[in-house]
Specification:
23 helices, about 45% helix, 4 domains, elongated, five-stranded parallel β-sheet
Length: about 600
């Protein structure tokens, strides 16, 4: 029983911390953090910032004892000295003050007026706001935890304001956000010491900032450290998921993942290299969605039909040649099958043309089209979809949605030689993908133009969480529309005037000329009226849905935030802030919540205009 009392543990902060009551310690559950002190707070004093600070437990017991004696006996004006030799006077139940002495000597003979400004003392916790005094630390782990805390706090606010009905009906609970730390594992390999030896002493802070952050991009592209990063990320994601399920056995919801900046690229590479179900793997190996060999043979027959070589179907069927076997064929194999030279050339040209599509993502179940093409051709390729040397671990769960914030995925794919993403491609184990970025974020790149390169279209404008566009954006659109209207009206008037000047003089009766003038006037009136209708027609052209493939289940992928009015004055000045704004962005959080709850059939209380 004594041991049980010593080990009393109470989960707090949504289960993210465990409080050991006997030891008075608070320990982080999911990440490493310095153990913090816990106090049983019953007496407080107000500091210079008007915040209530708790007394130590031992001194609180002294205050409580003196207070109870004063209440019982009616004897007030009690004077106590704190461990810091500060004076507390209990005048009456509603007036208790704390004095800070100005000198260490003669404290007892000095009067309260000589001891500085008195501060209020309070008994009990009523009407005291709970505040966490610790601020963000300097290490990336601490900054990550506080960034996720900001995201979590904003999500709770959005849950109250936009999902109140579902919450009152107990249809939804809150969404938990847990940080995944890989930075410390990378920099614990001793690389920081090596970098320190070669770092120049000038502009010390900037160089250390680059070593701690920007160089991670180069580490990830390094064959030496890339494996360390992906192993750490995958193992940490699996550990967090398993630990969360252990602590929440009743949890039945889904899991979504989010990555910011380089983290989104790491997650994308990890997800593209996940293996689907065993049945799907079998389908992929056969190049067909059917597991039977007849399905593969039928597909080969279709290929031969396209090449106008249907008369050789029996030969391929006799050799039990499916699609995979066909792409492994060499000219010698076809010759041994008795295929003449002309048909052989057609088949080999078809195989080579399909192999040359290695810069596209696979349209089937294969996760890396370039690796697939290499297998088919028997040659090694130097332009991979993901890192060359990395052996990507498998996650022990299937994420529902992948959110990328300020992501350079598009840029890295382009640098790796990926010119186009096949519209039929989707992540093997994750059906949702959202690329969210600020318009001034210098690190962010789009994804949709890589899927539909022949079309030019804008990303989806992320609706404002209050249900309208920002005022300056509406004003900008209104002025643009007005200028277009004025331009069209002016051009229409000039066109009619030019036509009247250049019209050849034709002798006619006066009545006929009057009719011509009437027609000209009618044309003048019609032409300006028809031109202003062009901008609304252009707007209507944007309303039909754009097919951006299956990467996000047929839905739009790129979402751009609305910049704030002050940000629109200077794009360069707010570029860095644009890359870090996602953790406190209500619009970003609302989109995340909307998409997560939508998987459970829960919608917003009031649909936002412009949302998909």
């Amino acid at each position: 029983a004594g041991k049980a009392q010593d080990d009393v543990v109470v989960p707090t902060s949504g289960g993210r911390y465990d409080v050991h009551l006997r030891a008075r310690r608070r320990v982080a559950v999911y990440w490493e953090e310095e153990v913090s002190e816990v106090r049983r707070c019953t007496w407080f004093y107000k500091d210079k910032d008007n915040k209530f600070i708790p007394y130590s437990e031992s001194f609180s017991e002294e205050l409580e004892e003196a207070y109870m004696i004063a209440v019982t006996l009616g004897e007030w004006k009690k004077k106590l000295e704190s461990p810091n030799r500060e004076v507390i006077i209990l005048h009456n139940p509603k007036l208790m003050v704390h004095y800070h002495p100005v000198a260490s000597s003669d404290d007892w003979v000095s009067t309260p007026t000589e001891q500085g400004r008195p501060r209020t003392v309070k008994r009990g916790v009523e009407n005291i706001a709970v505040e966490i005094p610790n601020g963000p630390g300097g290490s990336p782990q601490e900054l990550l935890c506080f960034a996720v805390n900001d995201f979590r706090n904003v999500s709770l606010s959005m849950l109250q304001s936009h999902f109140r009905k579902a919450q009152e009906q107990q249809q939804v609970g809150r969404v938990e956000f847990l940080p995944v730390n890989w930075h410390s594992s990378l920099h614990s390999t001793g690389v920081d010491v090596d970098l320190e030896r070669i770092t120049l002493p000038s502009i010390n802070r900037l160089r250390h900032f680059i070593n701690d952050t920007i160089l991670d991009v180069f580490f990830y592209n390094s064959s030496t450290y890339c494996q360390t990063i992906v192993d750490t990320v995958a193992s940490e994601m699996n550990r967090l998921h398993q630990l969360f399920l252990q602590r929440n056995p009743q949890f039945k919801g889904g899991v979504s993942i989010a990555g910011h900046s380089l983290g989104s690229l790491i997650l994308f590479d990890l997800l593209t290299n996940q293996k689907a179900d065993p049945e799907e793997d079998e389908h992929c190996a056969q190049g067909s969605r059917t597991a039977s060999s007849t399905g593969g043979i039928e597909e080969v027959k279709e290929i031969l039909k396209q090449l106008e070589l249907s008369e050789y179907c029996d030969v391929f069927e006799k050799e039990k040649m499916d699609r995979q076997a066909l792409f492994l064929c060499t000219e010698q194999n076809l010759k041994e099958m008795g295929i003449p030279l002309g048909p052989r050339m057609k088949i080999l040209h078809y195989i080579s043309s399909r192999t040359e599509m290695k810069v596209k993502l696979s349209s089937g179940c294969t996760h890396n089209a370039l690796t697939t093409a290499a297998r088919r051709s028997g040659a090694a390729l130097s332009i991979p979809l993901s890192q060359v040397s990395a052996n990507y671990p498998q996650l022990n769960y299937r994420p529902s949605i992948f959110f990328a914030f300020g992501s350079p995925i598009g840029m890295f794919l382009t640098v790796r030689g990926v010119k186009r993403i096949d519209p039929n491609y989707s992540l093997p184990t994750c059906k949702g993908f959202f690329n969210i970025f600020h318009p001034f974020d210098p690190v962010a790149y789009r994804i949709e133009p890589m899927i539909v390169p022949e079309l030019e279209f804008e990303p989806m404008l992320l609706p404002h969480h209050k249900g309208r566009k920002r005022m300056h954006l509406e004003l900008k659109e209104g002025l643009t529309r007005m200028s277009v209207d004025l331009k069209n009206n002016l051009l229409g008037s000039l066109r009619v005037a030019w036509q009247s000047f250049t019209r050849a003089p034709v002798p006619a009766l006066e009545a006929g000329s009057a009719e011509a003038e009437a027609e000209a006037e009618a044309g003048t009136e019609k032409q300006p009226d028809m031109k202003p209708e062009e901008p609304p027609a252009a707007v209507k052209e944007e309303t039909p849905p754009i097919n951006v493939g299956r990467l996000n289940g047929g839905n739009r992928i790129d979402y751009v935030l609305q910049e704030k009015p002050i940000e629109s004055f200077n794009e360069y000045l707010f570029a860095l802030q644009g890359h870090l704004c996602y953790w406190e962005s209500e619009d970003t959080v609302l989109l995340v919540l909307k998409e997560i709850y939508q998987t459970q059939g829960i919608t917003l209380d009031q649909p936002l205009p412009g949302s998909q």
